[in-house]
Amino acid sequence: MTAGLPVGDGGWTLETRDTVGAESVAEFDRLVVANGVFCEPLVPAYPGLEEFSAAGGRLGAATEFDDVEEARGKHVLVVGCVKSACDIAAALSGVAAGTDVIARQLLWKVPRKIGGFVNFKLLLLTRLGEGLFRCLRPRGFERFLHGPGNGLRRRMINSIGSVSVRQFGLAKLDLVPAGHMEDIVRGAIGLASEGFFEGVADGSITVHRDRLITRLPAGPDGPATELSNGRTHRADLVLSATGFTQGVPFLPEETRRQLLDERGNFMLHRQILPLGVPGLYFNGYNSSFFSPLNAEMAALWIAADLAEAVPLPGPGAMRRTVFEQLAFMDEATDTHHCRGTKIIPFSIHNVDAVLGDLDLNIGATIRASRWLGAVDPAAYRRMTPLLLRRLTPRGRDLIPDPPA
Length: 404
Hints:
five-stranded parallel β-sheet, 2 domains, alpha/beta, globular, four-stranded antiparallel β-sheet, single chain, FAD/NAD(P)-binding domain
């Protein structure tokens, strides 16, 4: 799609171009945007880039670098400390002449096997694990965890950080992040990359913590980078793992102004329905710990709303709810919520809220079992046929009973 133009009462005219350049125009009653919130890598425009490139240096996005042989024998610098940055640093350190990581801020990393035995998902990807983080409206046992049990809650989650420090030898490597493990929500799920800390320990990876790139100059020996501490490092290849941009350039400017607040955050009810833009939906704008499940449940919500089967609050109440959610996520994640499109760590809460609108959810017994057991997407396999039976005329005759 090259452009989407609103027409009539919720309708859209789409101008598209195929892979060989042929253009076409078609009209649709409704439009669902599912372009992905992490589709455009953000590569900073560093001062000195022209000089750096003229000297033979290369700057690019880490996610678009897929051939380790291109780094063989070169001095590689990776910008960022998220999982993708650590992944590529570990992968390239075996062939590069030198691998440096520039970390503006160290992030907490969770071992895949905590203590070498317990899978991380059994601690974090459960209802209890999600409940360790304060949500907008605590319910049930969450009220205890963030009330009388707050001390216990803090010890539970930060004990994972203590294990990480010991398991990875972070103190010896001078890689202990500031703050506590519960601050993990301010970045992303900090799953440790295989081989990364081992590479730091054996010297094949060097981490420059609490540093920024200020310039890409051409040094006496070739392309280089200048850091915020004034030091210069040789860098033939600079790979940026500094995030993504979320945009909808194919929509008219007037529509984009309606979608975003003054800071560029998407204003979406349930991460799906924009305020004041009829006939438009978003799916996949609820990036989570298990995005496919959240997107699948959002798709059910959209289908139900197309059938006018979702009880929506009034425009004023919906706007208040959206702004309240954005304000809460600002506080909970220190504004690191990808312009309002990331719901981590409240992934299960989002599924519950979406299905709650449809008066449709897995049973209370199954939900209770997920307090200590990791989320199982298969538990939701009955939701689609149940909704279809409800929405389809003569659905009970046309749609077979879903499996138990």
